[in-house]
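Two proteins were folded this term; both appear here.
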Amino acid sequence: MTKALQAAASAKVLLDTGDADGACNRAYYAIFDAARAALRASGHDVGKTHKGVLNAFSDRLVKNGPLPKEMGRLLKHAETFRYVADYEGDNVELSDAREMVEQAETFVAAMQAEFIARR
């Protein structure tokens, strides 16, 4: 979870400097790392790839609970924006990056409350 918190903080800094692509990248990693931490904290295998983590998160924590489907959608949404920010020729709009950073903060806080704070 430490990596997730650091990535979320970095996303805010990048957003504040107007780096929408960088902010989306770090927001995705905040969400991704929080998802990994949630899987570990709940005793599930984390997987070795991004796709493996996304699938495990969906299969083990969202489909049959305890998390709402919205958390799974946030993770997939973040992956889409990170792909655009990192690999597409187009830049992410600053308003979209702002939304991603806010969603990352929401996701990280939810994973902390659900899995980490209870330990």
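Next, the second protein.
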Amino acid sequence: MKANELKKLSKAELDAKLLELKDELFKLRFQQAINQLDNPMRISAVKKDIARVKTVIRDNELHGAQG
């Protein structure tokens, strides 16, 4: 998911997306632990998506406080 797409979402949608991504990361790590993970690169992609969502949330907090 791109940062431009995330900036268009509301705070509630961003929070929901963050929970969804964290759940997916948990499931991927569980699959990796029992050696059933097909694509190990998906873990790093999900981590980066989580970081993007958190960055957009923080950016909204900072700009909301200034504006």
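The longest helix spans residues 41-66. The mean pLDDT is 92. These notes refer to the second protein only.
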